[in-house]
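Example (one chain per record):
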Amino acid sequence: MTPQDLVIRMLPPFGGWLALAALALPGGSPLRGAAVAVFLAAGPGAALVRICGPALRARRAEGPVERRDADFERQSDLLERLMLAVFLSVSAVMLVSTVLIAAHAFSGERVLLTLTLLTTLAGFCPRLRASPTPRTAPRTAPGAAPRTRKGSTL
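Predicted structure:
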């Protein structure tokens, strides 16, 4: 692992610890609100998307047939990972908040601390490996319907 990879890997946890440190600022401070909002909107999800990155890149986006844009795949994959990070972050905030409410221990600081700890833990997790693609399609009898994997839409 290169130092650059380590820095990128630790950006989301660093954002969480920075948001926790921003809680020491006065209550109405825009810097405090911005640090907390940015972390809650993207931090936990970015750490989770980094873990799942190779699995997400296993299948590339396919562009429209009639018009081929050279940058479509790259831009589409980037947008997909960005939106997935935001949605996973919002989901993690809702899940942690719900658990803390059910445990009668809810507070904004506890939600932020819990998410920061989980994001730090995710920052230390190794990436998932992409599953290998099948080399050949399974043989089927003539006239029989092609076999599909369980859960496949085809």
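Caption: The mean pLDDT is 82.
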